[in-house]
Amino acid sequence: MEEEDFVFSIDENLSSVQFNVVNTTSSAITLDLFNLATLSNVPTSPIYIYPPNSVQSTFGSANTQFSAIASNGFLYTDDASTNILVYDTNNNNVLITTISLFGLIVGTGYITYNPINNRIYVSDIASPKIIIIDCSLNTYYSTISISATAITSTFNFINNLLYLTSASSIIVVDTLIDSEIATIPIASDYIAYNSTNNLIYTSDLSSNNISIIDCNTNTFVGIIALNNPIFLQYCPSNNFLYIANNGGIEIAIINCSNNLLVNTLTIPLGIGTLTYSVYDNVENNIYWGTTLGYNLVISCTNNLITYNFFLGASVITTGVYNALQNSVYFSLPFLNLIYQVTTIGVTTTPYYISSSSNYNLFLQSLEYEPIKVDYIRVIANQTQLANNLAIYKIDSSGKSNQVPNFPILGVNAWQDQGNISLIKFKDLIFDGRTYISQYVINANQTLILELFYSQFDLRNFKNILDAIMPIKVPLKAFFDDYTEL
């Protein structure tokens, strides 16, 4: 294959078919594709045990109000007293340990995870201090005294700083030395960190506006005028800020590039007012809880409320997203439970292949109606495109061998067009015995394969012979041609 192979227009006379290969698991799987020998009625649609946005499990035994999740999938929650409870979400959310804070906290407050040092920071709602837990050992680490009793907090991973709100100021803690280094005189309530612009946005208790803080200088740089804003959620995919505005009956959407209002979404009647939200970076959705136990799904792609569902008869106080389990976890303290909601669903099969053409029927037809594939377009994310694609053929003895004229294909820099790779082939016949072998589909990946092909006319035997048994050429000419691949 040469670089100029990629610069061409696909012959409009070719037929095409698209197959969507979906890995429904959190682990990579390996598949043979278009191989008749492995045909076993592949599912063409997902069969759900738990559909997307449904409750997968409930657990917990303490009056949990705040939570955070570590990079290893451990969920840390409070018990509204003097303990931190640790659940293993990799093992059916089983409680693995209770970390005693030895009476240091009389009323557990906000919990924030620091992925840089693998510690959680727990504020005390009754006194000006922060308790630090070492997530590597699941033990108490130390206590930090701060200048005011904190309300909420967020972590700035660019500067390794923890920002906490209070009734008198925003408190800045350097987590490298675990010490308060600055205060910003803004009475604030809820807070969000903008990693794109390295800014802090906070709901200002005194002005009923959103205050903006520059994290490089830890200084106030501006406001966004709203009406009684409360909870905030930043979306890095579009650099937008979503705000529970007007006391939580609407969502104000702010473009953080210019800090201007883009749109306002009114929440449905009868589900309460907005409380805490969680961002799902895989599906690019925000899950927003309410005072009456409902959850709204907001698409950051379309800036629309796409779905709402009921969890339980309790205010939703806090939540956290777990990418390892493709789930959001919400605390419903009046029910004394934590709810795990699956964001993509749990299926009975590890994968399925969907398209307008049934994959199973298409594959069966190859045995008596083979096709000559000119191009394969692969559409997926960058990580998936880096996986090698190998063409194999089952020979007359039944053994599977890599076809010499088809190299193992990866995506070179010149092939890269965003999330698309277009691969050109020479004399590739798909007949159920020549196939894509042992192709790795990454965890939770949707892979789109588009085949551009010409169909053999079985009434014209000569066409098939020409494709399968090309005209013989002198040995030198064959090797000259082979070196061009």
Question: Tags for this entry?
Answer:
Jelly Rolls, Methylamine Dehydrogenase, Chain H, 4 helices, four-stranded antiparallel β-sheet, five-stranded antiparallel β-sheet
Explain this structure to me?
The radius of gyration is 28 Å and the shape is elongated. The model is unreliable at 1-7, 404-416, 467-473 and 475-485 (pLDDT under 50). The protein folds into 2 domains: 3-47 and 349-482, Jelly Rolls (Sandwich); 49-347, 7 Propeller (Methylamine Dehydrogenase, Chain H), CATH 2.130.10.10. It has a 5-stranded antiparallel beta sheet with strand order 33-1-39-34-37, with no helix packed on it. It has a 4-stranded antiparallel beta sheet with strand order 2-38-35-36, with no helix packed on it. The chain has a 4-stranded antiparallel beta sheet with strand order 4-31-30-29, with no helix packed on it. With 485 residues, it is mainly beta. The termini are close together. It contains 4 helices and 39 strands.
Give a nutshell description of this structure:
With 485 residues, the chain is mainly beta. The longest helix has 8 residues, at 461-468.
